[in-house]
Design brief:
The complex is a heterodimer of chains A (181) and B (178). By secondary structure, chain A is an all-alpha fold. In chain A, 69% of the residues lie in helices and 0% in strands. Chain B is built from four helices and eight strands. The longest helix of chain B is centred in the middle third of the chain and has 20 residues. Chain B starts with a helix and ends in a 9-residue tail after the last strand. Classes of the chains: A mainly alpha (181), B alpha+beta (178). At the A-B interface, helix 2, helix 3, helix 4, helix 5 and helix 6 of A face helix 1, helix 2, helix 4 and strand 5 of B.
Amino acid sequence: MPAEELELIHRSLNGDLEAWGEIVARYKQAVFAVTLSILRNYADAEDATQDAFIRAYENLRKYDLSRKFSTWLFTVAANVAKNALRKRRREREPPLPEPEGDPAEEVHQDIQLSAVRQAVAELPEGYRAPVILYYWHGLPLEEIAQVLGLPLGTVKTRLFRARSMIKMRLVEQGVIHDAVG
Amino acid sequence: MRWDELEELLRAAVRKEVEEGAGRLSGLEERVIREILRWPARKSWWTRAREFFAQPTPRWALAGVLAALLLGFALGRLTVSSPIPQWSSNLFVIAAPGARSVSVVGDFSAWQPIPLSDPDKDGIWMASIPLPPGRYEYAFLVDGKWVGQDPLAEEYLRTFGEYVSVRYVGGERAGLSS
């Protein structure tokens, strides 16, 4: 862990909220990606991101300084998002977000990009989070397993399945031909 | 399109989705700090848990049933039927003495585990899987651990930082490229 980050954590442990604010600033987008991958909704992911930083601060004393801080923080965020998902299921289930933009005005690559975004958005629950943690955060599979509380083999099979599903969807839509390889 | 091109598209798509929503995070630092300062007004986890389980209707159970149904539906969608004739039986075999469970996962099963068996307990696990001609990527799961390099495979590739084995079913390397 970088010494500067360690210092921020120590200061936060001593009640320095300004230091914690700095941690929030550093990690907010990464944590947002984690919560968004689970909740599939910007507003809910924003709330969960805020809650994750509060929960992490509350539990900072439980953080083992020998572990990687980001992995611990993402694990807290994933748990907060999973709880929010359960709560949301009891109340409502919002529609999947539609990628913005008019496809007619987009160039070929943008059409592909929109189609991929839609295919990722349509992945079954449980498949999206490993995809985002892998492709956005570039997390090693072991860390993804740790963050999501899944066996390593499950993470691997979900990534393979997710990629197959995305490919299948893109082929169905005529965005790509079947010959991926 | 090559896999690495698809992966690059995936990376770009995920990045765009996160970045489009990230504008909402402006001022999050202040909001977090304000909320932490309001701690006494916040309910504890234990209080919330007691309130949840005290609900007259066990809605969490219904949510579980719904999730199972959705998962079943999703897995059902993964089962692909193929009109291609001339299916042949393919033996997947691996030596895994002492293993408690062994399965094979591959694109032919939408990466869902198909169990192997070791009826004579000699540590050689196998399963015969009928497949149409084609090129197949697969790996074994030995007690949940990924074994991507099957000594009997025709080639290996590395994807997601892990090996997977490749097998061609049918003549002329199955004449397929994916």
